[in-house]
Amino acid sequence: MRVEFHPAVELDVAEALQRYDSVSARLGEDFQAELRRVIAVAAAKPGRFHLIKPGLHRANLKRFPYHFVYRELPDGIRITLVRHHRRDPQFGLERE
Q1: Which domains are delineated in the chain?
Q2: What is the pLDDT along the chain (96 residues), one digit of tens a residue?
Q3: Residues whose CB is less than 8 angstroms from the CB of residue 9 and which lie 6 or more positions away in sequence, other chains included
Q4: Which strands make up the sheet holding 50-53, listed edge to edge?
Q5: Phi first, then psi: what are they for 63, rounded to 5°?
Q6: Residue 81: phi, psi to the nearest 5?
């Protein structure tokens, strides 16, 4: 399955990494590994995670208080945002 990223996702992840890297480089690495793992699960089975509206899913990370939102594509997924659980739930939903 193919995985695409909205251009703003890079900034979303950089902000999270800045937070975790300031505590420990290892923590930042763990965050990236967890994010990659859950993205792989979503790509393999796009319908697995919570549907927040038609065609738009939310996948929570297990160890970190973050989630990502993605759209199903015919041949994969497009991640539109990565955000902290406490962020405004409407933040980023307008991204295509």
Answers
A1: 2-84 (3.30.2310.20)
A2: 899 999 999 999 999 999 999 999 899 999 999 999 999 999 999 999 999 989 899 999 999 999 999 999 999 999 999 999 999 888 988 998
A3: 68, 79, 80, 81, 82
A4: 2-5, 76-84, 66-73, 56-60, 50-53
A5: -90, -25
A6: -165, 155
Number of Cβ within 10 Å of residue 84's Cβ equals: 14
In whole angstroms, give the CA distance from residue 34 to residue 58: 15
Question: Are 84 and 65 spatial neighbours (Cβ–Cβ below 8 Å)?
Answer: yes
Quote the tokens at residue 44: 């393999």
